[in-house]
Design a protein that fits this description.
By secondary structure, this protein is α/β, with parallel strands linked by helices. The chain folds into two domains: 79 residues, no CATH class; 110 residues, Nucleotidyltransferase, domain 5 (2-Layer Sandwich). The chain has seven helices and five strands; from the N terminus they run H-H-H-E-E-E-H-E-E-H-H-H. Strands 3-2-1-4-5 form a five-stranded mixed sheet, with helices on both faces. Strand 2 and strand 3 form a beta hairpin. Helix 1 packs across helix 7. The two termini are 15 Å apart.
């Protein structure tokens, strides 16, 4: 049974396209299994392959960015533990996000949110003389010395936007991603990166997800 998108598969091309369309519309594996009359195990395996390919697509977007960039960090995982305060409560996974205004978002898991973790990511991704917007977190000190124009917004002073000085774009991405991940009722840490990059891909491509993936699988079948 030939399938030009998925070699050595028992799934027909029409069925494969239907599964991919449900995935592109962000149907979970249970919904897709019910609609396609396939087992949840089969759909899970195929969704996993989709996510690996998405990760590869996003990681190949390796060029540096320039212009106006919003930078922020967020934390993913279990809810905050009672009594644990500050940036990144116990057990959470820290992620840095860089969003080019009117462009794409880039994310990377980091060990912590100290300067020695954040600065190499920024310098590796953002061209010097770009304008960077951040909140008031002290780990962003030194961006000017590294050749960037740097503007801060101080959330602790109940300041969230002052003209062009804000990080509303990257914060919208964090909100979108966390809402998406809630439906999975917890994600294993070894699978989190794939889900993070899937959210990044969905945000960056919006309405073109099905077409982009179908063309990618046609050029390089699973």
């Amino acid at each position: 049974m030939k399938n030009k998108y998925f070699v050595k598969s028992h799934i027909t091309e029409p069925k494969f396209r239907k599964i991919l369309r449900y995935f592109s519309c962000d149907f979970d594996a249970s919904q897709c299994a019910q609609l396609t009359k396939l087992t949840r195990k089969t759909i899970n395996k195929l969704y996993h392959k989709f996510r690996i390919r998405i990760y590869q697509i996003e990681e190949n977007q390796s060029g540096k960015i320039h212009g106006e960039i919003e930078v922020d960090e967020s934390y993913f995982g279990a809810r905050r533990v009672r009594g644990k305060r500050g940036r990144g409560a116990l057990g959470k996974v820290p992620v840095i996000g860089l969003l080019k205004r009117n462009g794409k978002v880039f994310t990377q898991i980091i060990e912590n949110c100290k300067r020695r973790e954040l600065m190499p990511v920024i310098k590796g991704k953002v061209i010097e003389e770009s304008t960077i917007y951040t909140d008031g977190w002290k780990s962003y000190d030194g961006l000017v010395l590294n050749g960037y124009k740097h503007y801060r917004i101080h959330h602790h002073e109940n300041e969230f936007a002052r003209g062009k000085n804000h990080v509303n774009g990257i914060e919208s991405f964090w909100s979108y991603t966390k809402r998406r991940l809630l439906k999975f009722n917890g994600i294993r840490k070894d699978k989190f990166l794939l889900h993070l990059k899937e959210s990044q891909f969905r945000w960056n491509n919006r309405k073109n997800i099905y077409k982009l993936l179908l063309e990618n699988f046609r050029e390089k079948p699973l």
